[in-house]
Amino acid sequence: MAGNPRNGRPYRNLCARQKALGLPCWLCGHDIRYDITGPEAGRDAWAFTLDHLVPLSRGGDLLDPANARSAHRRCNSARGNRLTVRVQGSSRRW
What we know:
alpha+beta, two-stranded antiparallel ribbon, 2 helices, about 10% strand
């Protein structure tokens, strides 16, 4: 039985490369707290998490750098596995 691919070296390297870019959250556009690491990162809503443009459950490639996006933990969780993204603040009030 294979282990969790998110615990493997290729996935950790992809996360490290994405973090090194220092990009804002691709979902909300705000800065990500890249300084939060370790167990705290798993609990902090503003910490970095690797999101996938095409969700893994929809056929996205786990290790494809072209599918990798920097996101806040809360934004990634709120998006779920939807293919479309509603940018916060983009709705109009008439």
